[in-house]
Design brief:
The structure is a single chain. This protein is of the alpha+beta class. The protein folds into two domains: about 80 residues, SH3 type barrels (Roll); about 55 residues. It is about 45% helix and about 20% strand. A hairpin with a 3-residue loop joins β2 and β3. The longest helix is centred in the middle third of the chain and has 23 residues. The mean pLDDT is about 85.
Amino acid sequence: MKTLFLFLSIALCMIYQSANGQVSEKKHIYKTWVISYNKSQTTKGYLRGLEESSIVISTSLDHSTIPPSSVELDIASVKTIKFRRKNKIGRSILHGAMVGFAVGGISGLMSYDPDAWNIWTPAEQGLVIGTIFGVAGGLVGAMIGPIKIVIPINGSQKSYEIKKKKLSTYKY
């Protein structure tokens, strides 16, 4: 039985690995905030293009509008550019809750003592502790999710040229 389980595990890993090799990598979409020196002006959207002395921000992902609604900002007026992956907050909460539930459930099952007076079975104890840890993990994910990637430009063309390669990874 152990050999059959080991064989099936190896076979599933090989199938998963080969399937992973055939999938083309999906391009991530990043929301973009461009903070200008004029504090009242923050441009929100998606990074569409990097020109010689300006950046192009599209205000929507909808390509059906001709021409697409976009704003071109001069680098001299840009203080910082911030990025966050689309739907990152929800994914962070979900991942935190799943990890918390798994860790809590396993620790609840492992900490069960049959000799002690218990009001729960091992499965119930794992479920209760897993739920508590899942909520805590979700809260941690909710705190981590809103963090943005910040790239300072400070209106400098030289700084923009240095960071242009990194900025191009956030284009859509």
